[in-house]
Amino acid sequence: MSEAVVVIGAGQAAAQLALSLRQGGYAAPIRIVGDEGHIPYQRPPLSKEFLAKYRDPSALFLRPESFWREKDVTLDLGTAVAQVEPDQRRVTLADGREIEYGTLAFATGTSARIPPLPGITLPGVFSLRKIADVEQLRPALNAARRVVIVGGGYIGLEVAAVTVSEGREVIVLEMEDRALKRVAGPATSTFFDTYHRGRGVDIRLGARLTAIEGDERAKSVRLASGESLAADLVLVATGACANDELAAAAKLACQDGILVDEFARTSAPGIYAIGDCTRFPSRRYGRRVRLESVQNAIDQAKAAAGAILGKPQPYDPVPWFWSDQYDIKLQIAGIAEGFDSAEVVGDPASNRFAVEYRCGGRLIAVDAVNDGRAHMMSRRRIAEETAAEAAPARA
After folding, report:
1. What is the C-alpha separation between 267 and 260, in angstroms, rounded?
2. Distance between CA 247 and CA 69 in Å, rounded?
3. End of a domain among 238, 255, 286?
4. pLDDT of residue 394 exceeding 60
């Protein structure tokens, strides 16, 4: 039987898994298969610095191509995996090639969630998840004066910050009653809402999109209220879906993500899953969670490598995330779901403050705005307080 480790996906998690295996002394072949034509690269800058200062994609590469050759990691890029056969320990690529594996890892990440609306496929409508998306979006932005962004989450607001700073008219449509609702509490949402509006962004809350209108390309968007808003360009930033279709087709347990245990093992022997595409049990938060973050990609990959190397360590992190908008850095530690109290520490008017979220007296999450010290301290405090009363994770 082959001893090769084959990784499906060529992002941050895949890169870290290969690196950690080599650092741990794994000498058998490692092969990374990715459907993009680029070697592993950073994704967070796509909606921030890379979009603002578009340049050679190599600026995003995690390591130069020579590094992977030196580590004897085979990169099979620009080719998708068509089928996984766990019983045969074999994957089939879209071009028909078959690859046998001893250990398989899914690191398939996420795809942009695209709402099924009339006009969603018109030219002039974009999403933002890959380098190729920026390569299409940036020239269109250069020619646009009025930009409509659908979604007031991280990506939507980050692109709004870049775009309005270039002197363009920007409208953000958010169907919820506040921006950043999925990731932050009301005080943080209010701060960013006010900050964006102060720089000229038109944020429409409770705005439900019903159609994108135009003949040969997008020219306007239609709201449920009946209002029509002219647009030179529409960016859809309505969240992400786990790329678990290939795993589900291979009969692996999936539920809005590939289900794994605390060692990143899937329901099939010899198969792991890591990064944004997974849903793992957190005793710390008492449920399964799916995280879309660099922290999760790196740390869960390390956990998987440890298990593959026969040195398993359970993975139950204090998650952390960040977002750069204008001169503001938002750093979030923990998960602010189910909190029963929220305390603002500092003065939001100074553009430097934190919000502490508690549940039953325990600190479960902190939003830190331009306060790196508060962020670092909160990660330690959350780890201590959530570990003290950790409950078994619910399915």
Report:
1. 7
2. 29
3. 238
4. no
Q: Where are the alpha helices (DSSP H) in the chain?
A: 12-23, 49-52, 65-70, 131-143, 154-165, 186-198, 245-249, 294-308, 372-388
Tell me how crowded residue 366 is: count the other CB atoms within 10 A of its CB. 26
In a domain, 393, yes or no: no
In a domain, 317, yes or no: no
Mean pLDDT of 299-327: 97
Say yes or no: 142 and 190 in one domain: yes
Q: From CA 275, how far away is CA 258, in angstroms rounded?
A: 10
Nearest Cα neighbor of 335 from 309, 295, 363 is: 363
The answer to whether position 269 is within a domain reads: yes
**Pairing state of beta strands 228-230 and 220-223?**
antiparallel
Residues 6 or more apart in contact with residue 269 via CB below 8 angstroms: 86
Which range, of 58-62, 217-221, 246-250, 390-394, averages the lowest pLDDT?
390-394
In this structure, what CATH number is given to the domain that contains residue 364? Answer: 3.30.390.30
- φ, ψ dihedrals at 379, nearest 5°: -60, -40
Is 38 in contact with 63 (CB distance < 8 Å)?
no
Show the domain range for 343: 327-388
CATH of the domain at 204: 3.50.50.60
- Specify the 3-state DSSP secondary structure of 107: coil
**Nearest to residue 355, comparing CAs of 344, 369, 340?**
344
Q: Which two tokens stand for residue 10?
A: 């060529």
Q: What is the DSSP pairing of strand 202-205 with strand 271-273?
A: unpaired
* Residue 136 and residue 191 in one domain: yes
Judge whether 177 lies within some domain.
Answer: yes
Q: Residue 87: its pLDDT value, please?
A: 96
Q: What is the pTM of this model?
A: 0.94
Same domain, 25 and 94: yes
